[in-house]
Write a structure and sequence with these properties.
With 573 residues, the protein is α+β, with helices and mostly antiparallel strands. It has 8 helices and 37 strands.
């Protein structure tokens, strides 16, 4: 120690070196003490986290320092320049986002160190889903395979945006009286209207019962020209809107068809159920028939339903469920009622019988379905097969065959004043020469099917001038390249009926020419499936709809009673 003191006294260089060391030590001590007092900045929030150049970016946290000093903000990899700072406080900094900013991390840097990062995104660089242009989503027809065709002929529609499956989408053709109404249909960009026929007055769509749809994909549709189509236009409608109307014409080979008189009815359909007994799980399910929509019955709109059905529409019916707890009166009863506004039209067919050809497309589903024997049309029964040649002889023309059978009914059979029991055999008509309208319709269909002429039974109600309704059945037979021809053998044979004042059926009454005093509930026979295989079912064979199931009761139902009303006419317009 003495030697170190001696060196300092004798050497000026040693004294200078010692003085420098002392200063350095003091500086290091000062830096250490300052560092220990300053705290590292903490960034808790940035707002907005997604912004654009020019926006004011707010940074919240703590330990930023009361003034910027040597501090700075690092934004997305860039140190902000002097001009970017708006304000700097210990817990709040405001900066302007510069123009060259992209996505990245935000830091605050002070003498105490670097803060934790927060993420900032430039909204101008974020992919944004653009609103879909309706012109790129609505169906577009690029080509029709033909621009004129016969009813029943296959039309191929090419284009795009039809949808991978049909769903609620549809094809529409101008109908008999539709050409002057085309300008009233919705704009092509109107979405959600694919299956709402009320929006397309004057147009008819292909029918499931006629097996008109053959193929559907996003860029191609194959569909048969439907019954009721007339010269005018065709278009495709989906839930995204409709295509542009394409001109389309109907060719005639065997004749022409027109709608004649028209009536609109307010119809009530319903049933009452009494004394439903059983456990809490007991339930009675009813299938309440709905009026159909077709070319000659273009409107069937539900206006009221009491109560609300469990299922509004399934295979032509509304489904209701009744339980022992459901009671609407002191008589321990419950029930269901539905009101419909239905428009029905008369039909006038002008057929050039010499130009009617035998069926060529015998592999077509319509032909196979309506020429075979089924649950209610016994066309293969010996009594039918034996009677047929006595009526049509060697005639091969399907129109003449249908006419000969019609004339035979008018000349040989009479109509009973009351409807027979449901289990009565319709073929009794052959021997007894008397029957109700159901017997007439079943036997007529059986004879034509046995002859190879497609024929079906329509069921519904007949409405007389006093607004009285009754269950009724009639027929339609099909001519290739023409369509369906209506026939009502019971009315032609003299069934008691009071037409509206001034109502007139032109041509040969009830053969190809029919009135509008009827409402149809089914085209041919509908086979319905049970809700549960254990349910007991009830059928009603001679009623206003031809369907296999009307009522179902679960295994927990001990007993109940039911009463179905003939659909009532509440008004005629």
């Amino acid at each position: 120690m003495n030697r170190f003191a001696y060196i300092l006294r004798k050497s000026p260089i040693a004294r200078l070196f010692a003085f420098a060391l002392a200063i350095a030590a003091g500086v290091l001590l000062l830096l250490f003490l300052t560092r220990s007092v300053l705290r590292k900045p903490v960034l808790t929030e940035i707002a907005p986290s997604v912004g654009a150049p020019g926006d004011v970016l707010i940074l919240r946290g703590q330990n930023f320092g009361s003034s910027r000093g040597f501090g700075y903000v690092e934004l997305c990899g860039n140190r902000l320049t002097e001009s970017s700072y708006v304000s700097w406080d210990d817990d709040l900094i405001k900066v302007i986002v510069p123009g060259n900013t992209e996505d990245g991390l935000v830091y605050i840097v002070t003498r105490a160190g670097k803060s934790n990062p927060e993420f900032f995104a430039n909204e101008l660089a974020i992919p944004v889903e653009m609103p879909e242009n309706p012109m790129f989503s609505v169906p577009i027809i690029s080509e029709l395979s033909v621009t004129e065709a016969f009813v029943g002929q296959v039309l191929t529609i090419s284009g795009r945006n039809f949808g991978s499956n049909r769903g609620e989408s549809n094809v529409y053709f101008t109908t008999y009286t539709g050409s002057e109404r085309e300008e009233k249909i919705p704009d092509l960009t109107t979405a959600g209207v694919a299956s709402d026929k009320k929006l397309y007055p004057g147009f008819v769509s292909p029918c499931e019962a006629d097996f008109d749809f053959e193929y559907w994909s996003d860029n191609e549709i194959r569909v048969r020209v439907p019954e009721g189509a007339a010269n005018g236009s065709v278009f495709v409608a989906t839930n995204e809107g409709r295509s542009v109307l394409q001109p389309f014409a109907i060719k005639s080979r065997a004749g022409v068809k027109n709608l004649s008189s028209q009536h609109t009815y307010l119809i009530q359909v319903g049933a009452d159920f009494y004394n439903i007994k059983g456990s809490n799980d007991a339930a009675v399910t009813i299938h309440l028939p709905r009026p159909i929509t077709y070319s000659w019955q273009p409107q069937a709109v539900l206006t009221e339903s009491v109560p609300e059905p469990a299922l509004l529409e399934y295979r032509g019916s509304s489904i209701f469920q009744m339980t022992p707890a459901d009671k609407t009166s002191a008589k321990n009863s419950t029930g269901a009622r539905q009101n419909f506004v239905v428009t029905s039209c008369g039909i006038e067919c002008e057929i050039w019988k010499d130009y009617v050809m035998p069926f060529r497309e015998k592999d077509r589903m319509l032909y196979k379905t309506y020429t075979r024997s089924d649950e209610i049309v016994p066309s293969n029964k010996k009594a039918v097969v034996d009677l047929l040649p006595q009526i049509i002889f060697q005639v091969k023309n399907p129109y003449r065959q249908a006419e000969l059978v019609f004339d035979y009914f008018v000349d040989n059979y009479s109509v009973l004043p009351k409807i027979r029991n449901g289990d009565a055999d319709p073929l009794d008509l052959i021997k007894r020469k008397k029957g109700d309208a159901y017997d007439f319709a079943v036997l007529y269909a059986a004879l034509l099917r046995a002859a190879g002429v497609p024929c079906r039974i329509l069921s519904g109600i007949l409405i007389d001038a006093d607004k009285h309704s009754r269950n009724h059945w009639w027929n339609e037979f099909y001519l290739e390249d023409y369509g369906w021809v209506p026939v009502d053998t019971a009315l032609a044979a003299g069934m008691d009926f009071k037409p509206f004042q001034g109502e007139h059926v032109a041509g040969k009454p009830y053969f190809g020419n029919i009135d509008a005093q009827r409402v149809a509930f089914s085209l041919d026979y509908k086979v319905l499936k049970q809700s549960l295989l254990s349910n007991k079912t009830v059928s009603m064979p001679r009623s206003f709809a031809l369907q296999s199931i009307w009522e179902e009761s679960s295994a927990d139902v001990e007993s109940y009673s039911s009463y179905w009303i003939v659909p009532a006419v509440l008004g005629i317009y």
